[in-house]
Design a protein that fits this description.
Layout (H helix, E strand, L loop, with lengths): L1 E4 L4 E5 L21 E5 L11 E6 L8 E7 L6 H12 L3 H14 L1 E8 H17 L5 E6 L1
Antiparallel strand pairs: 1-2, 2-3, 3-4, 5-6, 5-7
The structure holds L-tyrosinamide.
């Protein structure tokens, strides 16, 4: 299996047998596993020897993509319910939760926290499910930082 390193115009082969048959592209995180990389010494016109040698051990880490989780104001969700949501799903102290709720109430939108994509997505889903179960129109969304 291989992937193209577009930044250097090279093609690498990953020598880990566990990854046999899988295809990868930059950005899916597998490079952060410190895999041995074999640089292809063959030529693209098929005239190469076909021999490959391990030339480097490349480590590439990625900063997680962070997302703000937002609460939106509405006219019907009880203030106490919003405070409970902030305490339960965003681990806020009651005083902080109350401040955030009041801020959302007066400004229209407010940040509950900043998280990597999958955590943000889970929190949005949990809040929306909780609001729906309690028949409140509270809206929770996420946006890229
Ligand atoms: N505006 C709501 C009320 O007056 C309270 C509220 C605050 C609703 C924050 C949603 O995200 C929200 N009951």
């Amino acid at each position: 299996m291989f992937f193209a390193d577009k930044s250097e115009g090279l093609t690498y082969y990953v020598s880990d047998p566990m990854l046999k048959g899988q295809e990868f592209s930059f950005g899916d995180g597998f490079m952060s596993q410190n895999l041995p990389i074999i640089k292809d010494t063959g030529r693209s016109d098929d005239q190469g020897s076909g021999t490959s040698v391990i030339t480097e051990r490349k480590v590439q880490t990625r900063a997680p993509n962070l997302y703000r989780v937002l609460l939106h104001n509405d006219d019907y969700t009880p203030m106490e319910f919003v405070v409970m949501v902030l305490e339960t799903f965003f681990n806020k102290e009651r005083a902080v939760a109350t401040e955030i709720m009041i801020s959302v109430h007066s400004k229209g939108v407010g940040v509950c926290g900043v998280y990597p994509y999958e955590i943000a997505e889970t929190k949005v889903a949990l809040v929306m499910e909780c609001a729906r179960e309690n028949e409140h129109p509270l809206q929770c969304t996420m946006e890229r930082v």
